[in-house]
């Protein structure tokens, strides 16, 4: 499971709500492309999830559901390490250490912090501010080469690289400098109700996002109500952000280029595009949903998977953590 000759990828998703097709096309689908050529660590980042308020019962359920989704999408626990972040204490530990090598100014520039802190009112949890340091720790603990994420995470990844380079130059080569893996057309799936905004599982308007677990009727309803424009031409351009978004979702499934879709739909209406997209989404998601429901009935199996994942993750990450502590001067 840990092949020394292979490079390593690390990625994670927060169990902070129902996963959307943004998570699926922006992250998980790219993991699937890479999984056989890399040592893989796929984490359920529950420590990140508590930077905004979570209800304990729901959080518990969502952590298992995210694991079930990873498995149902085709990640093999015998080949990839699947684990829950809070089970592996090295993450919180390195995060404290890296807190001391990160500047307030850097964190204040993070777009996600600026956006999320506006939403929580006057009392902003410190964790929301230091969130990118925990993410840097996740990545750096595994000598990660590549981090497959959506484009919203690019800035956090650049910070992780800066922190790693700073530490390396202060002491000596300790951390590997990770590279982002961001696939252009699927890296930012937009809201179905406001195509200028990222699709997000925490949006207050349910029609703005499609969940991986949405049933056929919800998929039909949400796609048919998705916001387009009055131009009436199926064309991939920034003046038609709604249509561009639907094309991006479509090609994430079919593998076509935007141009091929434009040609195929020449002279056709938005209704036809939406109809095809609906049926492609149903075909893509329904087998996954069936599997998720099966895995959710088998909690013993899920426990077996995350327990094994935790053990490997701890062994690998603790090696780096020990090296860090030694370099700093801890006894
Ligand atoms: P999160 O739900 O914030 O934990 O995100 C988990 C992963 O999904 C990250 O790699 C994100 O970049 C990716 N992601 C989340 N929302 C979207 C979206 N709307 N489009 C593309 N990728 C996304
Ligand atoms: N911050 C990421 C997000 O919200 C989730 C995440 C946490 C992550 N740690 C990570 C992604 C490490 C990649 C690598 O999308």
Short note summarizing the structure:
With 331 residues, the chain is mostly helical. Helix content is 54%, strand content 7%.
Please characterize this protein's 3D structure:
With 331 residues, the protein is mostly helical. It is built from 13 helices and five strands. The chain has helices at 21-34, 46-49, 56-72, 90-99, 104-108, 111-119, 126-140, 154-170, 216-224, 241-254, 258-264, 270-297, 299-328; strands at residues 7-13, 38-44, 81-84, 146-148, 179-181. Strand 4, helix 8 and strand 5 form a beta-alpha-beta unit. The longest helix has 30 residues, at 299-328. The protein is globular, with a radius of gyration of 20 Å. Bound molecules: adenosine monophosphate (AMP) and tryptophan. Tryptophan binds next to strand 1 and helix 7.
| Uncertain residue segments | none
Helices and strands, in order, run as: EHEHHEHHHHEHEHHHHH
Report the portion of residues in β strands: 5-15%
N-to-C CA distance: 32 Å
Largest sheet: 3 strands, parallel
For the structure shown, list the relevant keywords.
331 residues; three-stranded parallel sheet; 13 helices; binds tryptophan
């Amino acid at each position: 499971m840990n092949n020394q000759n292979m490079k390593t990828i690390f990625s994670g998703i927060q169990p902070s709500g129902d996963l959307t097709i943004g998570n699926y096309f922006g992250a998980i689908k790219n993991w699937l492309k890479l999984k056989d050529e890399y040592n893989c660590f796929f984490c359920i980042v529950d420590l990140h999830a508590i930077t905004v308020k979570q209800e304990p019962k729901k959080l518990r359920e969502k952590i298992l559901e995210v694991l079930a989704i990873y498995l149902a999408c085709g990640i093999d626990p015998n080949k990839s390490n699947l684990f829950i972040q809070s089970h592996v204490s090295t993450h919180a530990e390195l995060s404290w250490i890296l807190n001391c090598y990160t500047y307030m100014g850097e964190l204040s520039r993070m777009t996600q912090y600026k956006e999320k802190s506006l939403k929580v009112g006057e009392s902003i949890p410190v964790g929301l501010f230091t969130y990118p340091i925990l993410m840097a720790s996740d990545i750096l603990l595994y000598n990660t080469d590549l981090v497959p994420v959506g484009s919203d995470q690019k800035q956090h990844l650049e910070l992780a690289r800066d922190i790693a380079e700073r530490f390396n130059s202060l002491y000596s080569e300790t951390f590997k400098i990770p590279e982002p893996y961001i696939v252009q057309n699927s890296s930012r799936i937009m809201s179905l109700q406001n195509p200028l905004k990222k699709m997000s599982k925490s949006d207050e308007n349910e029609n703005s996002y499609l969940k991986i677990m949405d049933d056929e009727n919800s998929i039909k309803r949400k796609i048919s109500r998705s916001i387009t424009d009055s131009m009436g031409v199926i064309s991939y351009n920034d003046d038609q952000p709604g249509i561009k978004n639907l094309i991006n979702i479509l090609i994430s499934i079919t593998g076509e280029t935007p141009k091929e879709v434009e040609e195929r739909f020449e002279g056709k209406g938005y209704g036809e595009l939406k109809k095809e997209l609906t049926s492609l989404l149903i075909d893509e998601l329904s087998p996954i949903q069936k599997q998720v429901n099966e895995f959710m009935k088998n909690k013993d199996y899920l426990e077996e998977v995350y327990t094994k994942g935790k053990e490997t993750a701890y062994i690998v990450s603790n090696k780096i953590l020990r090296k860090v502590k030694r370099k700093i001067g801890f006894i």
